[in-house]
Every structure is written in C-alpha cells, then in structure tokens.
C-alpha cells in the first residue's frame, strides 16, 4: 500500500499494537469517502484516537494525498490509503468499524432527499463490499439521506444474510450537538453541560428535539420552544446556505469509540411502529447494546412526533424499495 513500505508497516503495526488501548490489537477502522469534507477531519480524529490501531482511508479521489498527510501524525494508528473501486475490498478486509461519509452533500436549496439518486447507489455498492470483506463490522452511515441510506444498507445486508441490526447505525449525533449548542445559548450556560435528546430521523421535520427532557432540567417559553425546534431542524440548512455551494456541515461532526456510551442514533427500533428510528441508544464494542425508550413527551412533542413519523415512513420505504425493486 502506497505510503508505507513492508518493513515500515511491520514496525508501525508492532508500535500500534503495544500503544493501543482498544483491546489486544485495537480497533481497525475504515473510512469510505475519506477525502471529503467530513472524511478528512474524521480521519484526523480517528488517527488521534488511542483505541484505533489501523486506519484505512478509501475514496474515489485524493485518497493517497490525504493518507500521506494524516500518516505523518505522531499517534499510534497505522494509516493506509485506498483509491477507487478496485481497491475497495482491500480497504475493507478485516475491519471492525466502517464509517461511511461517501457521496454528495447538499447545495443551497436542496433537501437531503434530493441526494437520494446519487448516494443510494454509492451506499449500496459500498455495503456490498462490506458483505464480502467484513460482514461482522459495525457500520456507521453518515451519507444522506440517512433516513433512507440506513434502510438501504439493512436491505443489502439482509439479502446477503449478514444483517445484524445491532451493527448498523445512522449517525445523527450532529443534531444533538446542534441542539446542545442552541439550547445552551438560550439558557446562557456552557454547551458542554447540556444534553438534549433528539429523536426521529435526520432530515427536516423528522428531527425532533425533546426539549421537555433536557438535562439539566429546565423550562422554555412557547416562543423559545418553537425557535429552538425550528433552528435545530434547520441547523444543517443554515450551514449549507452559509457555505453557499462550497459544502455542508463537516467541522461540527464527530464520532466516539468508547464503550458504554449513550448517544442518539438512527437504528432498527421498536420504539415506534417504524422499523427504524433515532433515539438514545447504549453503545458497546459490538454496536447497539440497547435502544432506550422515548420517555414522556409533552403535547407539542407528541404532535411533532406524528409529523416526523409520516415523513420518516416514506423515506424508509424509499430506501427499502431501492434494493427490493
Ligand atoms: P464531500 O463531497 O466533501 O465528500 C464526499 C466524499 O465522498 C468525496 O471525497 C467523494 O470523492 C467521496 N465519494 C463519492 N463517491 C464515492 C464512492 N463511490 N466511494 C467512495 N467515496 C466516494 O461531502 P461531505 O461534506 O463530506 O458529506 C458527505 C455526506 O455526508 C453527504 O451525503 C452529506 O449530506 C452527509 N452528511 C451527513 C451528516 C450527518 O449528520 N449524518 C452531516 C453532514 C453531512
């Protein structure tokens, strides 16, 4: 693989294995779409993560450049780059975690659903690679529309007989990050001290912040609730418009690799009648350990939930039909 010679690689691996805190040999992580706006900072965070021993960076453009750059960081993980479809299988072989930010982002005026036609096919192909090379990997899907790409991935895995709902997660953490920031602004406190559950899905009205369950407990005026709900639902659009065609949100994205963490994520779920739903989930080494219930909702949230479910049902079905058609 381009950036490291065989000898260098052996010594790097030895070093990674003794330094890594992620178990005997650490986590092996692949990022698909690693040269993009999300992929690059994500690669940097993964390279800094002491739980990661091997980091594979795959993209259809610029993967060798990003790999050379990231590989110079003085942290333990061994970095290898993979360019284009012929190298996809090598990129995936033996991976424990595959994170997928591959695909196109929104431009001003676009909804996440407008990305379906391009990103659905990309996600399908990448998931077929996972089936073949690392069917037991935990898969984190970032590519939009998450409300449809997660069902697409599930269908690809089901078709191949490798589906494990615990190992497939749609990344919606950005909605929580935004909610924490905006709520902290209203409350005049440090955003690090705020935790807002955000449930439903990852697009427009399907993004449902549960402002009645904010930690620390607090109350809002009806005006504040309507301002915060709208701002959290449209946080992504705010960034897309501010970047004016140069991309969507990338810098506020993050991912955690710790065990025993509770985060909101879009997963296979029995929390509602829908097959997939974002809510708090307890994460472990193998993915989802427990999907937590919604908790008590107030009247405003119950009404918004019905609206969210309507749109979500359509997006899920669209993803399922894309594979079953
Ligand atoms: P970007 O355009 O900067 O990067 C996407 C990367 O994917 C590019 O490097 C591109 O070459 C690569 N790519 C395209 N087709 C590929 C393929 N077949 N295989 C491998 N790589 C491929 O876009 P950005 O800003 O990084 O966004 C990526 C995706 O993440 C978009 O769909 C965006 O809507 C979504 N997103 C999701 C968020 C979430 O919270 N879940 C937040 C922000 C963006």
From TrEMBL:
Binding site for substrate: 106, 112, 144, 178
PROSITE patterns: MDH (PS00068)
Domain Lactate/malate dehydrogenase N-terminal: 28-170
Pfam families according to UniProt: Ldh_1_C, Ldh_1_N
Molecular function via GO: L-malate dehydrogenase (NAD+) activity
UniProt binding sites for NAD(+): 33-39, 59, 119, 142-144, 253
Location of the Lactate/malate dehydrogenase C-terminal domain: 172-322
Active site: 202 (proton acceptor)
Assembly with partners or alone: Homodimer.
UniProt name for this protein: Malate dehydrogenase
Species annotation: Musa troglodytarum (fe'i banana)
């Amino acid at each position: 693989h381009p950036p490291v010679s065989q000898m260098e690689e052996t010594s790097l691996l030895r070093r990674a294995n003794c330094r890594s805190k992620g178990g005997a040999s650490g986590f092996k992580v692949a990022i698909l779409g690693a040269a993009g706006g999300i992929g690059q900072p994500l690669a940097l965070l993964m390279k800094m993560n002491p739980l990661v021993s091997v980091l594979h960076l795959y993209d259809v453009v610029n993967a060798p450049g990003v790999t050379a750059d990231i590989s110079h960081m003085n942290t333990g993980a061994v970095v290898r780059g993979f360019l284009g479809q012929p190298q996809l299988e090598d990129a995936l072989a033996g991976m424990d975690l595959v994170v997928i930010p591959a695909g196109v982002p929104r431009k001003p005026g676009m909804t996440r659903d407008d990305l379906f036609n391009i990103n659905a096919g990309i996600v399908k192909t990448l998931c077929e690679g996972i089936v073949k090379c690392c069917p037991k990997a935990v898969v984190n899907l970032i590519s939009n529309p998450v409300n449809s790409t997660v069902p697409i991935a599930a269908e690809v895995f089901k078709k191949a007989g490798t589906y494990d709902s615990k190992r497939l997660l749609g990344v919606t953490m950005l909605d929580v990050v935004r909610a924490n920031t905006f709520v902290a602004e209203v409350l005049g406190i440090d955003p690090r001290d705020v935790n807002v559950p955000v449930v439903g899905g990852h697009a427009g009205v399907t993004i449902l912040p549960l402002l009645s369950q904010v930690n620390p407990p607090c109350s809002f005026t009806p005006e504040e609730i309507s301002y915060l709900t709208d701002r959290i639902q449209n946080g992504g659009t705010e960034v897309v418009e501010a970047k004016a065609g140069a991309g969507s949100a990338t810098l506020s994205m993050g991912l955690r690799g710790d065990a025993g963490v509770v985060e909101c994520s879009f997963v296979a779920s029995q929390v509602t009648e829908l097959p997939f739903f974002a809510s708090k989930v307890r994460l472990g080494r193998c993915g989802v350990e427990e999907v937590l219930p919604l908790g008590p909702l107030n009247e405003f949230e119950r009404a918004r939930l019905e609206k969210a479910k309507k749109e979500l049902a359509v997006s899920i079905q669209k993803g399922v039909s894309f594979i079953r058609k």
